[in-house]
Design brief:
The complex is a heterodimer of chains A (424) and B (402).
Chain A lengths: L13 E9 L6 H10 L5 E2 L12 E2 L9 H7 L6 H17 L10 E6 L5 H15 L18 H10 L5 E4 L5 H14 L5 E8 L3 H9 L23 E9 H6 L6 E10 L12 H14 L8 E3 L6 H15 L7 E3 L2 H4 L6 H15 L1 E2 L15 E2 L5 E2 L5 E7 L4 E9 L8
Parallel strand pairs in A: 4-5, 4-6, 9-10, 9-14, 10-12
Antiparallel strand pairs in A: 1-7, 1-8, 2-3, 6-7, 8-15, 11-13, 14-15
Helix pairs in contact in A: 3-5, 6-12, 9-10
Chain B lengths: L2 E6 L2 E2 L1 H10 L5 E2 L14 E2 L13 H4 L4 H16 L12 E6 L5 H14 L6 H7 L3 H10 L5 E4 L5 H14 L5 E8 L3 H9 L29 E8 L1 H6 L7 E9 L12 H12 L11 E3 L6 H15 L7 E2 L2 H4 L4 H11 L32 E7 L4 E8 L3
Parallel strand pairs in B: 5-6, 5-7, 10-11, 10-12
Antiparallel strand pairs in B: 1-2, 1-8, 3-4, 7-8, 9-13, 12-13
The chains are: A alpha/beta (424), B alpha/beta (402).
Chain lengths: 424, 402
């Protein structure tokens, strides 16, 4: 049967035993949760590169100077991108929290990461220098300056750093990359392809995406306001998140405390338009239904949703339509939040960071809020969590959604450990 | 596997590719070096798609909204679907997934957008370039073109990506997650990308007045030949293919992956032992084990360290036994994902492979001799290999159906 333990023939229950994150709210999981709980956005003025020629001038950037000193020393004279640094820091934190020993099972450990631009920021600097040299200004840059430029850079950096020799793969499905990578990891652990999966995503701010989203008029001049009537676009962010996944039996056998169950995953495609979502959220609804079916849950059992919620008029409307299609009348009573309202859109890492945020909400028994600085939209019949955390001490099952450029959709379902019905 | 579509430097379709492989001569063209980005004495040629008119596959109105890699992917997919006997009205649906791989995505559009941003100012950026320069654009355009509403996956794992993508697609079909998958690889070479690869020391270098030659496994090898194109396969369950009367071209016998953590960011490493262990363990699941492999369609490309670890992995996996014939199609097609996929199927079908271009003198350090052009019997199984710079590794076994 699909997803069966090769030895017992039964489906392997996959649990999350470690989490790590680097975000505009800081270099630790604690700073992330503290910031999410506070509900204050990290989107604001930024100085990573010159954006004076753009229409907008805000983003949520990671404070590079706050990177732990030991890590900074490690990277000295190494060809790594910002996205690599974020990824390795998040993965190291997740591994430390899980207390696994990657060296002890390196051939049975896989890395599944998502990224949409990898080391593009560093590549831009390289290219700028090269173009200037071709125009007679200055010397060509040293090839060694072309840092880990491709999208596989962050995932490979994690695999290299942990010394694993199992599979490594990077998904580049734009804004759904991180969630799809986690979905792949769930399947790999479930089917017994690996015993441990390090899954997540990483992306950094770069001029290409900043200019591209501005050219599309998809960026708000103010911090994004997902699902609000006056929403006018997304806010870009950067960072990384990582999860350690393993079979429940393995975690219990080594005395680890599972944080949550990675209960369900699904991915679909709108097959509709490169930049606009299907207006009825058809593909997103199919992804949500698929993830619920994979988790063997009824829509009634989902306690809250961490939505993709970018803040663009079309995306939020389509996602709302998808939620209504799946949850029906219950939509008005189902708490919904958007992590992007606080840390911006992390693109290829967004799904991973939002998975971590979803899990933190389950663990803490409360849903993090969005800033209450917009106007309610009568066309969005969602129960948004605004201003302050929503206490949901009994929340058992949560859904996280990701919707991407090109129509790729992914949905993940997490279940609090101990609330899983083993007979399912 | 019920359909193959391939468009590359050798032409459109499997026949053109088979003819080029039979001759064993790299399909090269001069790269435009007029922008002054190349270094003196650097590589001059690449395996470029010559027949760029794809209007037979894509209507001009639709093509206008696509980058070249997106057009290649859609065209190759339509070619594959036609071979599989799947009409346009039945090609898509919620149970059809797309699993592709690329290393650089749309190089041309990325470069155009970056030039606008870096040289002309932020507001010069054109939105169309941006939407097509995301790596997953070819997969998304393919899904839109055929209405594929299942998972839409673009993997970026350099040279191992194509085999990962096909392996993942095969798993999805096998597990019933999709009924059909369109899987493969797409790549584009632009003058800028060519210049960057050359500056990085990745490409074979000219020998005096003679243009560069990739020399897989040869003692004098010094880099690969950049290549572009697309190869798309149609995968479906064997019983489903039979039920609709479609002949199965090949069966995916096994797929596996590993990582060499000794590899540098942009080079190959020395960790052949764990890679060989993973390969050998995987081949243990194939009838006959390593002895059941009739030919290896190697991802070797002429890269100095890449070919070395490829040879060492194979030697260690075969554990002293004689290696089967070692076919090296990237010496003909250039380094791109389709450079391994389509020749893998052709090898299984008993296509003739000419001598490995550029191979003259074995490298005593690795002691491997690639195919020299002798006639081969159609093997029951072929192993496709893809070891990536940076550490990724993937393998695929194709086997003949009854």
């Amino acid at each position: 049967m699909p997803g069966a333990d090769p030895e017992t023939g039964t489906a392997r229950t996959v649990v999350v035993t470690g989490l790590g994150a680097v975000s505009p709210l800081g270099w630790s999981l604690e700073s992330l949760w503290e910031g999410l709980r506070a509900g204050l956005t990290a989107v604001g003025p930024f100085d990573r590169f010159d954006h004076s020629g753009h229409r907008t001038h805000i983003a949520a950037q990671v404070d590079l100077a706050s990177e732990p000193r030991r890590a900074r020393r490690r990277w000295k004279a190494r060809r790594v991108s910002n996205a690599d640094r974020f990824a390795v820091a998040a993965a190291r934190a997740a591994v430390a929290r899980s207390a696994i020993d990657p060296g002890g099972c390196r051939e049975r450990t896989g890395v599944y990461f998502g990224s949409s631009t990898g080391g593009m920021f560093e590549s831009e600097t390289y290219l700028e220098t090269l173009l200037a040299a071709a125009g007679g200004r200055g010397r060509p840059p040293a090839a060694s300056l072309l840092a880990s430029q491709q999208n596989n850079g962050p995932g490979d950096a994690v695999a290299r750093d942990l010394g694993i020799s199992g599979p490594a793969q990077t998904v580049s499905a734009a804004c759904a990359s991180g969630a799809m990578a986690i979905g792949d990891a769930i399947l790999a652990v479930r089917r017994g392809e690996v015993d441990v999966a390090i899954a997540g995503g990483s992306d950094s701010l770069c001029r290409l995406t900043y200019a591209g989203f501005n050219a599309l008029r998809s960026v708000d001049e103010r911090p994004c306001r997902p699902f609000r009537r006056d929403r006018a676009g997304l806010s870009l962010g950067e960072g990384a998140a990582a999860l350690v996944l393993e079979p429940l039996e393995r975690a219990m056998a080594r005395g680890a405390r599972p944080l949550v169950l990675a209960a369900g995953e699904a991915a679909t495609c709108d097959a509709h338009h490169m930049t606009s979502p299907h207006p009825e959220g058809r593909g997103a609804a199919e992804a949500i239904r698929g993830a619920l079916a994979d988790a063997r849950l009824d829509p009634l059992e989902i306690d809250f949703v961490n939505a993709h919620g970018t803040g663009t008029p079309l995306n939020d409307a389509a996602e709302c339509a998808a939620l209504v299609a799946v949850f029906g009348d219950r939509t008005t009573d189902l708490p919904v939040t958007s992590t992007k309202s606080l840390v911006g859109h992390l693109l290829g890492s967004a799904g991973a960071l939002e998975a971590v945020a979803t899990i933190l909400c389950l663990l803490h028994g409360e849903v993090h809020p969005m800033p209450d600085d917009g106007m309610s939209d009568p066309g969005i019949p969602l129960r948004l969590v605004l201003g302050r955390p929503l206490r949901l001490a009994r929340a058992r099952h949560a859904l996280s959604t990701s919707l991407a450029f090109g129509g790729a959709n992914a949905a993940l379902v997490f279940t609090r450990h101990g609330d899983h019905d083993a007979a399912r | 596997m019920t359909g193959l579509g391939t468009i590359g430097p050798c032409g459109h379709g499997r026949e053109a590719l088979a003819a080029a492989l039979a001759v064993g001569k790299p399909a090269v063209a001069e790269v435009d070096r007029g922008a002054g980005l190349h270094r003196e004495g650097g590589a001059r040629t690449a395996a470029l798609v010559g027949e760029r008119d794809l209007s037979r596959f894509i209507a001009p109105a639709a093509a206008r909204r696509m980058s070249f890699p997106s057009k290649l992917a859609v065209a190759a997919a339509r070619m594959a679907l036609a071979e599989a006997g799947i009409g346009a009205t039945e090609a898509g649906g919620p149970r059809v997934g797309v699993y592709l791989s690329t290393t650089f995505g749309s190089g041309q559009f990325t470069e155009l957008l970056l030039r606008q941003v870096l040289l002309e100012g932020a507001e010069a950026a054109q939105p169309f370039y941006f939407s097509e320069c995301v790596a997953n654009a070819p997969a998304a355009q393919l899904a839109i073109a055929v209405g594929a509403r299942g998972p839409n996956v673009m993997l970026t794992q350099r040279e191992s990506g194509p085999l990962l993508a096909v392996g993942r697609a095969a798993q999805a079909v096998r597990e019933g997650r999709v009924d059909r998958a369109l899987a493969g690889a797409v790549e584009e070479v632009t003058p800028l990308l060519h210049a960057l690869l050359d500056r990085f020391g990745a490409l074979a270098r000219p020998e005096g007045a003679r243009p560069e030659m990739p020399r897989p496994f040869d003692r004098r090898r010094d880099g690969f030949l950049a290549g572009e194109g697309a190869t798309i396969l149609v995968l479906e369950r064997e019983d489903a293919a039979r039920a609709r009367g479609a002949p199965a071209l090949a069966r995916i016998g096994w797929s596996g992956a590993a990582f060499d953590s000794t590899a540098d960011v942009s080079d190959w490493g020395d960790g052949h032992v764990p890679l060989a262990a993973a390969l050998r363990a995987g081949l243990g699941e194939v009838p006959g084990g390593v002895a059941g492999i009739g030919a290896v369609v190697s991802g070797a490309s002429g890269a100095r360290r890449g070919d070395r670890i490829e040879a060492r992995v194979l030697r260690a996996a075969w554990d002293g036994a004689a290696l089967p014939p070692l076919l090296v199609p990237k010496a003909v097609t250039g380094e791109y994902g389709g450079g391994i996929l389509a020749p893998g199927l052709l090898a299984l079908e008993g296509a003739r492979f000419g001598p490995t271009p550029g191979f003259v003198e074995p490298d005593p350090e690795i002691d491997v001799t690639p195919h020299r052009g002798a006639a081969l019997r159609a093997p029951a199984r072929v192993l496709l290999t893809g070891l990536a710079s940076g550490g990724g590794a993937a393998w695929l076994v194709l086997e003949r159906t009854s």
